[in-house]
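Predict structure. Chain length: 349.
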Amino acid sequence: MTDLRSDTLTRPTAAMRAVIAAAEVGDEQRGEDPTVNLLLERVRALLGKEAALFLPGGTMCNNLAIAAHTRPGDAILAHRSAHILRSESAGAARLAQVQTEALDGAHGRFTARQVEDAVTAGSRYEPATRLLCVEQTHNFGGGAVWPLAELGEVCTAAHAHGLAVHMDGARLLNAAVATGVPAHDFAAHVDSVWICFTKGLGAPIGAVLAGTEEFIARARRLKHAFGGALRQAGIAAAGCLYALDHNVRRLADDHALARRLAEGLRPIEAVRLHTPRPDTNMVFFDVDGWNHAALLDVLATYKVKLGAVGPHLRAVTHLDVTADDIDRALEAIVLTLETPRRSSSPGRP
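Prediction complete.
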């Protein structure tokens, strides 16, 4: 099976499993797990922040960060297609009790002027804006990278109005590899940031949130309140350390495979690419005349899986995908489009 639904589908390699099995462990909640502590120091330095916190996954990172930066009744700003709005079960509203104001813009990006226009000081009628959230890379924007200069402009605007800035950096290292800009240069513009190890980096568990010592102290208390305290978490952190050592630079291979897929899709008449040349490891596209669910069902018979994300199809390359897999997927798409099993209601799944 060629599975391009998400880079969360990666599986730990035999070498990573061996490191996990041999990990030195302690009580993470008490700060006594040496492998977790080593990971936190590595990520803190990588991102240029004062302190860091180990968490099971990225959604908890976002929810903790929003709650740590705000008070109930505040407002935050985020792009309309941000992961915190579309894919986290209203966690910001349920856990941090904040209102989210959505900003528009191509590829998941918006401008400094939009930020300035959206900020409110707060009154008896409306909440005060306390936090700006950005996403690097932007998942539903096609895996798009925020250019460093544009990111700096929106963050400067936010800070000028007294807002904190949080970065959902689930795929920040994809952006760093794709652009050659060090991760800490992107992170320098924001007050908090996290990276995920369970996507292109291939670890089975783990994300690390970073920021100031004061921010991380607040986040640690919230982590305990949200049920995120861990015990011998070194077995998970060991996989993350292995990923930092072995799976970062190879993200460039995923980006090359995404471009290979996009180039192969471009000549197909029925296909409309939303990312003609992907920034990173995602290809978003539509197929004229096909209902997504019907198309995915036919593709599965050729042992190829894609994802339906909102109104588009999405293919994500990762360390378990090879060039042969991409060629197999392209062949399966061509064969599928040649079948007579078309739906009478094309478009959305």
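Summary: The domain at 7-246 is CATH 3.40.640.10 (Aspartate Aminotransferase; domain 2).
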